[in-house]
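Changelog-adjacent note: as of this version, every example in the card shows the full chain rather than a window. The one below runs 573 residues end to end.
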Amino acid sequence: MSDASRGPVWSRLRRRAFAWADRFLPPGAAALDAEALRRARLTPLLVLAVLVWTPVFAYFYGPLRPAALCQQGCALLAVGCLWIQRLRSQRLAAHLLLGLYTAAIGALTLGGGGAESPLFSWFVATPMVAVLMLGEFGGVVWAGVTALCLAGVFGAEAAGWELPSTVSADVRLPLLVASLGGLTTILFCWALLLESSHAELAEALAGARDRAERVGAEKAQLLNTLSHEVRTPLNGLLGSAELLLARNPRPEDRELLEALAASGAALQALADGILHRARLEGGQGPGEPRPVELGPLLESAATALRSVARRKGIDLRVELAADCPKVVWSDEHYLRQVVLNLSGNAVKFTHRGEVVVSARRGPLPGRFTVEVRDTGEGIAPERLQKVFDPFSGSEDSTGLGLSIARRIVEELGGELKVESELGRGSRFWFSLPHGARPAAEADRTALGRALLADDDRVGRLVGRRFLEALGLEVDAVRDGREAVECARSRPYQVVFLDCDMPGLDGASAAAAIRAHSPAVPIVALTASSDPEDRSRCREAGMNAFLSKPISGDRLAEVLRELGVGVGSSPPLS
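Full-length structure tokens:
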């Protein structure tokens, strides 16, 4: 039950009790964990309970009777436990307090008629308190001590010893009520500490959740920054290399340019891989679908594993059916990750024979199927249902590979399935929509002028050259305000706006342009991977997106989709 439901009185009582108990914490209390702190707080609370009930029992027994005097002496000595805990250790103070408690209860029991004494039941609390203060082993030790005390009382009575009661008959009922009240006080201290543990745990969990959300937000911001800061120079690097390669350079220069383009592509793949991995771990869906050449993708995944397969003497090959679509629309990196995971798993558990990665037209219209089959160990029927569980714990565990593959396939709109026969191999396959986009409309707008706004100088240079190579005249400006002014001064067949510009950003500029030019196609140039940025651009009226680094082929394709006429084959393809 929370403090709010109990009310402010309970909260104030608990805070004050803990504030008083914390004065007697042992050395190095700041480093104590929650369990050690709870035990250290219990000692002063029990001492306080003993001091409260000592005069009550002294009244019923008679202050000067031997039993009452023994109990009062034990209570005074119990105060010393507070200083022992503060100066030495909590465990020593706990043992001493339990010893004094047991001695006091023993004296009151013997002075109250033995087993007939109302305080005889207090022995039961000894091992309970010991468990709280010392742990399970301490509870067992003091349970043994309690058993010896009980055996001594029963043994004395069985031997015929008379244990006369010093408590008169008329006060036995009030004494019973008082003893129950004392036990209730001990249980109250116990409940106070247990609820405190739950409250502290809830507070710790809430703090951990807030920290996790903070870290997640910082991670997302870092990834967005990484996306922008890496993709922007890559746009200039890869675009410049593509433009130079289109000029038929000398063979020695072509070799260097191809090396430059390959290195830039590798860096782009690395940046994209980091972003996609983080997006997957963060529970985000696949990125924007792009055209993917299925054959080269399967071949690249197989190439990455061929050296391992060759060392094991396995034939690893790719088969592409004649009816399989050559190009599909999907998230290329997610799709490659699935093929790599399935192929790597097949190579791992295949020791002879072959691994075949194949693709064909799917069983339903508009879908394609990718299959990985092997002649490996196979999977036992009892394990087949658990093959997609992460880290099954056995030596032949597939780790996280198949689990991640299934999750990606589901996010891409399919289902990963498996068939296997022990000793004969396995077959994994999935079917996805190939997302083929309809052909662009036949009628085209005449070639004309394009407006390009990008705060990056290299980005403007590369974008201008690409558009000019596609037959468009280009006005290039540095920010959103200049783009809005240009769009108001003359008509354009298409407008390209970088999303992240100082001053007036791409979305705001698009909204302003759309207000007076509702029909002009507007394309967002974005280096961000944040879906919220794209949603904002879409709401501002943008028609399409180009992710940096851009290429001539992709630029020509977007223009055709928007109805801006380009040549039948892009000049830079």
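Structural remarks: Residues 1-6, 436-446, 567-573 have pLDDT under 50 and may be disordered.
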